[in-house]
Design a protein that fits this description.
This protein is α/β, with parallel strands linked by helices and about 290 residues long. About 40% of the residues lie in helices and about 10% in strands. The protein is globular and about 45 Å long. The chain is built from eleven helices and eight strands. It has an eight-stranded parallel beta sheet with strand order 6-5-4-3-2-1-8-7.
Length: about 290
């Protein structure tokens, strides 16, 4: 049975959770693929985050820059203006918050505002200041498998040696880079980056091999929620299933990810995913 690797440096409310953590997505952006534009206003964003926590989310992941395929980058000042008021307010209300950013300046400001985890989808590659910044903190960070910005990544979904092999090697290289920069390995979470420079078959191969990825020995985050490959799986002759029809498939992936030993699942709607984690937890206990 896979063991659950937990990062060091979490607040007690998260560190004492002996099950897969549910991270609720909160995009304060106008153009994210699932909920872009819905939570741009601070009050609506706060309301959404508190609602997700009330439904069982352990952590709220606040992002101010869309990373959907084709998305253009925004100025750092705009990203800061979007995320800081939300992070500050939620932290003051006792909500555990992570910051979803590729920029060291945004990560630093978010940590000062109360964020307890940095989620860098570029794996520390987009900003050379990110890893040195994290080496000076006691906060855990997520390093995702990444091969380029949203406007380029579709060109890089090529894995001649096999996607599981190449993603594993590249994640280990990012872990090594973080450690070389002074980040303690026990504070690093790895994310295979489903949907980032990957076609549907690559995503399914990685999901089927989650136990091998857990076997690297680092906490693992899985972010499959509502992604296009699920829409393609469920589609019909009219095209992929729309985003709002992918939640049930997301629950299935959450249960399988939790059973495989993932430390965290990143999802858009907490309630069903919290239930799926509890089912997987009992499933594993029964097998034990």
């Amino acid at each position: 049975m896979p063991s659950l690797h937990v990062p060091v440096g979490l607040p007690p409310s998260l560190a004492s959770t002996h099950r897969t953590v549910v991270m609720a997505v909160l995009n304060v952006t106008p153009d994210s693929f699932s909920d872009g534009g819905q939570f741009l206003h601070v009050d609506r964003a706060i309301e959404r985050a508190v609602h997700q926590v009330n439904l069982g989310a352990d952590l709220v992941d606040v992002g101010g820059e869309s990373t959907r395929p084709g998305a253009e980058r925004i100025p750092v000042a705009e990203e800061l203006n979007r995320v800081l008021p939300v992070i500050r307010t939620l932290s003051e209300e006792g909500v555990a918050v992570s910051i979803d950013t590729m920029r060291a300046a945004v990560a630093e400001a978010a940590l000062e505002a109360g964020a307890v985890l940095v989620n860098d989808v570029s794996g520390g590659l987009a900003d050379e200041a990110m890893l040195p910044l994290m080496s000076d903190t006691d906060v855990p960070m997520v390093l995702m498998h990444w091969r380029g910005h949203s406007t380029q990544m579709h060109l890089r979904a090529v894995y001649p040696a096999g996607v599981v092999h190449e993603v594993t090697d590249e994640l280990c290289a990012r872990l090594d880079a973080a450690v070389a920069a002074g980040v303690s390995a026990d504070r690093v979470v790895l994310d295979p980056g489903l949907g980032f420079a990957k076609e549907a078959e690559h995503n399914w191969a990685l999901l089927q091999s989650l136990e091998a990825l857990v076997g690297i020995g680092q906490p693992l985050l899985v972010g499959a929620s509502r992604k296009r490959f699920l829409g393609e799986l469920l589609g019909d002759d009219q095209g992929p299933r729309p985003v709002d029809g992918r939640d049930d498939a997301t629950l299935a992936v959450t249960a399988l990810s939790a059973a495989a030993g993932a430390w965290c699942v990143r999802v858009h709607d907490a309630r069903g995913n919290v239930d799926a984690v509890r089912v997987a937890q009992s499933w594993k206990a029964g097998r034990a």
